[in-house]
Design brief:
With 216 residues, this protein is of the alpha/beta class. It has helices at 17-25, 49-58, 76-81, 97-106, 152-166, 183-189, 198-201, 206-214; strands at 4-7, 32-37, 63-68, 84-90, 110-115, 133-137, 171-175, 193-196. Strands 1-8-7-6-5-4-3-2 form an 8-stranded parallel beta sheet. Belongs to the ribulose-phosphate 3-epimerase family.
């Protein structure tokens, strides 16, 4: 089974974001990954609801929205209305994760949980039946272009074992430092979806790069 690819629009040229979205529409990408950063939960600010809505207006691929923000519950409905098909919240930002996941499902979106490099996959055991995808951060969240953290492979393998034990259909998404150098190894470890930003948008042929990642 081939990997699903979710190019991160954060790495696109913001002055030409419509053309970037149209390029992704014409590519083999499965999702458009939208990183929302508030400068509080992570040391960076990206964009918010108006840009997400603008991306959605031009997108033919589902939006995979990653909320790297404090108090994500306040904005779930707004991002769903802005076009999010998947909404991922950070485990570290949710005091009541079970309730948050239920709220995302009640909005008709797929519910994702992102975990930082220091967060153990075992902490998701009691909520795995409500999680559609786990976004494993393979860099520290906040800035693109960071070096891939090698411990990610064993972390993905442990998470895959946990998913199988629980009999869950949860997908594993990898976010950060993804390239052709590690795509096959991540797939072998159990990854289903790869988020790639700089590697796609800084390449000579982004569409070809997406195709190659998909076939890793």
């Amino acid at each position: 089974m081939s990997l699903e690819i979710a190019p991160s629009i954060l790495a696109a040229d913001f002055a030409n974001i419509q053309s970037a979205v149209e390029m992704l529409n014409d590519s083999e990408a499965d999702y458009i990954h939208v990183d929302i950063m508030d400068g509080v939960f992570v040391p960076n600010i990206s964009f918010g609801l108006p840009v997400t809505e603008a991306i959605h207006r031009h997108a033919k691929k589902p939006l995979d929205v990653h909320l790297m923000i404090v108090e994500p519950d306040r904005y779930l409905e707004a991002f769903r209305n802005a076009g999010a098909a998947n909404i991922s919240v950070h485990y570290e930002a949710c005091d009541h994760l079970h309730r948050t996941l239920q709220a995302i499902h009640d909005l008709g979106a797929k519910a994702g949980v992102a975990i930082n490099p220091h967060t153990s996959v075992e902490l998701l055991t009691d909520t795995l039946d409500l999680i559609d995808l786990v976004c494993v951060m393979s860099v520290n969240p906040g800035f693109g272009g960071q070096k891939f953290i090698e411990n990610t492979y064993s972390k993905v393998s442990k998470l895959k074992e946990l998913i199988i034990q629980k009999g869950s259909n949860t997908q594993i998404e990898i976010d950060g430092g993804v390239s052709l150098n590690n795509a096959q190894k991540l797939k072998d470890a159990g990854a289903d979806i790869l988020v790639a930003g700089s590697f796609v948008f800084n390449s000579k042929s982004p569409k070809e790069t997406i195709a190659m990642l998909k076939r890793a």
